[in-house]
Q: What sequence folds into this?
């Protein structure tokens, strides 16, 4: 695909974004303004015109829907080489990196990510094991949110807030041992 065909139908700012090949690029614009088109054409321009290896390109977005749309459009522009481009959501990218490299930090790559209800169940179980009253938890908040509120509240009163060591150890041990087969 030629440079001219990649830029066809774009305004000056869109063309500038496609042709700006030095470093990362963040595009912020309203709905329907052509963000996905600009990003996908920039990816194609980097690979087709600038000789960048497809596996060295990362296109990242927030939603699965947007990532799917971007992946499809990059595929239409690049064909087979589109398979090597990293088009992803932030969450999926982090999971992919963890699955690839987590063994380097001593964890099993067959890990699972706990959903909200699983997190609550896990925290309640640990609190029960540690004889800590779970009624102090605020309904609807995740454990980290609760801890941040608790820490902020206690800091205001100049009281040190530290989780008991057994709770920290138990939490760590549970996370480590959930994936052992």
A:
């Amino acid at each position: 695909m030629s440079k001219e065909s990649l830029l066809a139908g774009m305004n000056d700012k869109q063309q500038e974004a496609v042709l700006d090949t030095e470093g990362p690029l963040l595009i912020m614009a309203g709905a329907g303004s052509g963000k996905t088109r600009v990003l996908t054409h920039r990816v194609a321009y980097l690979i087709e015109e600038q000789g960048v290896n497809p596996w060295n390109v990362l296109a990242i977005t927030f939603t699965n829907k947007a990532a799917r749309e971007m992946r499809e459009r990059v595929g239409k522009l690049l064909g087979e080489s589109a398979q090597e481009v990293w088009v992803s959501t932030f969450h999926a990218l982090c999971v992919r990196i963890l699955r690839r490299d987590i063994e380097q930090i001593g964890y099993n790559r067959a890990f699972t990510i706990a959903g909200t209800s699983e997190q609550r169940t896990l925290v309640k179980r640990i609190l029960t094991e540690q004889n800590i009253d779970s009624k102090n938890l605020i309904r609807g908040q995740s454990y980290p949110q609760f801890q941040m509120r608790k820490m902020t509240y206690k800091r205001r009163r100049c009281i040190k807030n530290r989780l008991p060591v057994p709770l920290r150890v138990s939490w760590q041990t549970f996370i480590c041992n959930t994936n052992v087969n």
